[in-house]
Amino acid sequence: MDEVARTEVAVVGVPFDTGVSYRPGARFGGNAIREASRLLRPYNPAQDASPFALAQVADAGDIAVNPFDIDEAVETVQHEAGRLLDSGARLMTLGGDHTIALPLLRAVAERHGPVALLHFDAHLDTWDTYFGAAYTHGTPFRRAVEEGILDTSALSHVGTRGPLYGKQDLTDDAKMGFGIVTAADVMRRGTDEITDQLRQRIGDRPLYVSVDIDVLDPAHAPGTGTPEAGGLTSRELLEILRGLADCHLVSADLVEVAPAYDHAEITAVAASHTAYELTTLMTRRIAAERDAG
Questions:
Q1: What is the mean pLDDT of the chain?
Q2: What is the CA radius of gyration of the chain?
Q3: Of 205, 97, 88, nearest in space to 151 by CA
Q4: N or C: where does the chain have the smaller number of CB atoms within 10 Å of the terminal CB?
Q5: Which ranges constitute the DSSP H helices of 149-265?
Q6: Rounded mean pLDDT, 71-99
Q7: Rounded Cα distance, 149 and 131, in Å
Q8: Cα separations (Å) of 4 from 10, 43, 256?
Q9: Whole-angstrom distance between the N-terminal and C-terminal Cα of the chain?
Q10: SS3 232
């Protein structure tokens, strides 16, 4: 990033996984995604765009976070993300576990106000605590709602599935304002219908997209900390993201890639393509805003 005069999309890693509740290793996810991105090419035919020609995309390296202190790590991520946003860049953040979504959302909301959230995940991540801890990979979006940094008229989970601790989990989630599109909904209704529904809910609000790679079925993403059977295919995820081309995407994260459990880089490849589509969406929006004057 220090080799270019300006950065419009900053790709930044957060090697942190102290907030996980099951399998660790996501602190190595960012580098695995970068390695898998070597095969990506400059023209994206699915979006008819050359993202790296539309806007200046640069790797901002990794945010150095304390792996022994979650509270300090959260503060560090918020501060460093804010510094990058203040430079005029949108963020494409590579985790790391999902704990980091909270400080990233704080930093984005400081500059845009409460944002719409599109959350791709097998899990709700709106629990109150894990083992008494308020800041974990299962709690970021409850904290974000409590802090008023999300636009509660435009919150959506996509790809949820699997067992819960109780039906109250769904009741609490609905009270926070979240709409749920399950993995089974995507399979039955198809990506075009789902994407239309999401676009209507989002409108032109500033949008933050958070992708937990475990939204994908373990067949498509085995290298993650909390895998759940019955997930999206990589094709379904990419098609839904491509359908968001007209949305006001201000930043995004991609988390929970744990390469120690990956096979033949299946997960890292899926993650690199996901980050590529998100980056393309941001560069298209940047170019459109520039052309509009």
A1: 97
A2: 17
A3: 205
A4: C
A5: 168-175, 183-189, 191-202, 234-242
A6: 98
A7: 25
A8: 11, 21, 29
A9: 25
A10: strand
Q: Which residue has the higher pLDDT, 292 or 90?
A: 90
Joined tokens for residue 65: 């976070």
Does residue 285 come out as left (phi exceeding 0), alpha (psi in the -120 to 50 range) or beta? alpha
Contact criterion met (CB below 8 Å) for 255 and 138: no
For residue 179, give the 3-state DSSP assignment.
strand
Give dist(CA 42, CA 97) in Å, integer: 28
Convert the pLDDT of each residue in 187-220 to its tens digit.
999 999 999 999 999 999 999 999 999 999 999 9
Q: Judge residue 235's burial from the number of C-beta atoms within 10 Å of its C-beta, 0-12 exposed, 13-18 middle, 19 or more buried.
A: exposed
What's the confidence (pLDDT) of residue 1?
Answer: 62
Q: Are 41 and 276 in contact (CB under 8 A)?
A: no
Q: What is the DSSP letter of 28?
A: G
CA 151 to chain centre: 17
- Count the neighbouring beta carbons within 10 Å of the beta carbon of residue 58: 18
pLDDT at 130: 87
Q: What is the pLDDT of residue 3?
A: 74
Using DSSP's 3-state secondary structure scheme, residue 258 falls into coil
